[in-house]
Amino acid sequence: MIAALRPGDWLILSAGAILVGWLATFAWQQAPATRVRIYSAGKLYAEVDLAARRHLDVPGPLGITRVEIDRGRARVAADPGPRQYCVQTGWLIRAGESAICLPNRTTVALVGQDAHYDALGY
Amino acid sequence: MPSDTEHPLPGCAPATTFVSAADRRIAGYAAIAIALSVMEAAIPTPIPGVKPGLANIVVLLVLWRHGWQEAAWVGLLRIFGAALALGGLFSPGFALSLAGGLCSLAVLALVQHLPRRWFGPVGLSILAAFAHISGQLLLARLWLIPHEGLWRLAPLFAGAALLFGLVNGLIVARMLLEKPR
Fold this sequence. Notes:
The complex is a heterodimer.
Chain A: H1 7-28, E1 35-40, E2 43-49, E3 53-59, E4 64-70, E5 74-78, H2 85-88, E6 98-101, E7 106-111
Antiparallel strand pairs in A: 1-2, 1-7, 3-4, 4-5, 6-7
Chain B: H1 21-41, H2 55-66, H3 68-86, H4 92-111, H5 121-144, H6 154-178
């Protein structure tokens, strides 16, 4: 009788497991964000180091959008827009995340070492 | 069809058309494989594309018992037959199924020559499952979802391939143990 799992099968099985593990670390590692880009009316308004701790008041057609940067994360703290989508987006942590205040034409986006996709749809 | 035409169907076929024993065997195995595919389509999965691939049990069994050529016939008939039965012939899903099937058959064509003393159906099943998912992912990346974000799903699909390849291979090993021919 030959065993169900022969030596070569064990080899293939462990190679497969290593491949899955490698794929997971390769595909699921998230590059940490290092900088914040703030766009106003389609133009780059400021690019700031994410490690800092400061406020930026970005002027737009409706008024001032206040961007808060807090040691590795950033958010829109206040915005004059009617629906407050960008404020409710909350803290941005990972590279590629963004908050968009469309009425006031202001965008906050985190960038990492290399350019990433900014959205995934299924 | 395979060329061993020693058993023509008696009394009904003209002299030029033969239905060999291999043909009947292939038809029977393909029918089982199609039935498994249709059954499997009823199982809900959290992620589209993650399926046990039970029909591959049949393909692997045929490969072990009757060689690669017959396994390829069963595998391809299964893909077309299941698509006809489920109503997705020439749909994107069918294209993915065909890409996966062709890739896994190509890999099986190579690895069938590995010494059977060392490499059993479980190893071949895992390799075929990985080939299957690679073919599908490549086609999806090149044609259906041309976006790098697709690779984020690759570990999930590879993990499923490993798991289901192992389980299907163990089932084949068990079946061969009970009935080698």
